[in-house]
Amino acid sequence: MSRDQENRVSARDMYIGGDWVSSAGEVIEVENPATQEVIATVPAATPAEVDRAISAARQGFEDWSSRSPVERAATLKRIAATISERAQDIGRVMTEEQGKPLNEAIGEIQKLADTFIFYAEEAVRIHGEIIPNSDNAYQSLVVHEPIGVVAAITPWNYPAELIGWKVAAGLAAGCTLVVKPPALTPLTPLAIMACLHDVGVPPGVVNMVTGSGAVVGQRLIESPDVDKIAFTGSSEVGLQIQQSARQIKRMSLELGGNCPLIVTSRADLNDAVKGAARRSFRNCGQICIAINRIYVARDVYEPFLDKLRHAADALVVDDGIANPSADLGALCSSEPLSKTKAHLADALAKGARLIAGGDVPEGARFEKGYFFRPTIVADCNHGMMVMTEETFGPLVGVTPYDALTDAVRLANDTPFGLASYFYSKDLDEMRYATRRLAYGNVAVNNVDAGIINAPYGGWKQSGIGHEHGREGLLEYLNIKHIRLCFAEERVVT
Ligand code: NAD
User: Catalytic residue at 254?
Assistant: First the structure.
């Protein structure tokens, strides 16, 4: 980067032990994916700086874990209020670095605030159990205690929420954290960190170190002083993390998906199309629970395709700042765009039919930036990448089926098990499919597979552990069994 260019972008610090600090290392440039302009730089933390953040979290643990749940809950509520107040500003930061339209980005910030409220309320309900023993002189108490120092490592597609699920649950449990935000979108996380700082979260309780996965992420994984890894990202990196930990440590891994939608002939076709368009193309398909592939009963296949084409063509692609209510903004970087084009080319070369999209929208504002129209390919099969790999872009493959048994078998024909979708008004079909779909989340007649109140996690190569709900809190707690022995006869005279 030239000195002139450097003067035009702002440099952000990272946050260690309650202070904003610069780094002795290099810097990482942050790009606006709608314009390809560099908008800021952040530090690439050195291993020594990562160690400082871990030791700050360790120092903060004794204080934070010994505060009462009511006090921790009050802090979480203050964080929620501050995030809500700043939703517009932080949303803008997100659109500028991630590409999603402004209204959607602001919506994500509001959901982040709701997450802090949810876990504030859970913080005061960390109950134990009393278990009778076979000998009445004994009693077992089961209590939950915070695990310790947590490394939270997150991807760029939901730069706010994915951090929030970990930080809110971790803080509610009494843990302290070192957060490593994604290198592509570190500015939103730093703006959230500023909220925590401003409401007076004690020094060391949450720290944020920016940089690459290979250096910062790996140091966190390998550190003997990190007690738990809370990771969201690709299955490849999740596996690498599991294999490279040098000690036994708690892990929750929220990984990739390859999510199917089944539409039966008993579905409300308009509802199914609405759901398919939303969950295939929202955030440009850059969502782990995006619909990647659709299986449609043959007798409604062509009408479904026709309606889905209309729905996709009606979606507005635009610069997310210039048009806050656009449906799709820019993709986050050149990588998901290249993968989308590669999966499309592969499908077309193998005989798929292009139904909608397939190219960049026309117009001067799309000449720079990573834009692509919502794209549908039909007559697909499992020899095509679009049906078997996670595209993470605005592309969906569709294919007809004859029997529901075949559709469910094809839906399960994947190493992934994150989310699946099913549209039918027939109770028996619903029962058949929901019992057999091998996924951690099954959404029926809707496409919002993850909500904060209920556990959210993947099966198979999509991960281990849960976020959301009470289960998301338990991931940050150790269970302790205290066995008491009484001698009641001593008080009997
Ligand atoms: P990624 O795995 O490349 O990176 C995720 C994070 O891990 C980043 O912060 C990255 O810097 C870090 N990282 C990379 N290598 C590392 C290493 N060796 N050690 C430690 N950390 C390392 O994923 P991405 O491309 O940023 O995100 C897209 C992926 O995330 C998709 O596969 C998507 O399905 C998945 N995802 C899953 C969920 C879920 O809830 N299951 C949610 C969102 C995204």
Answer: yes
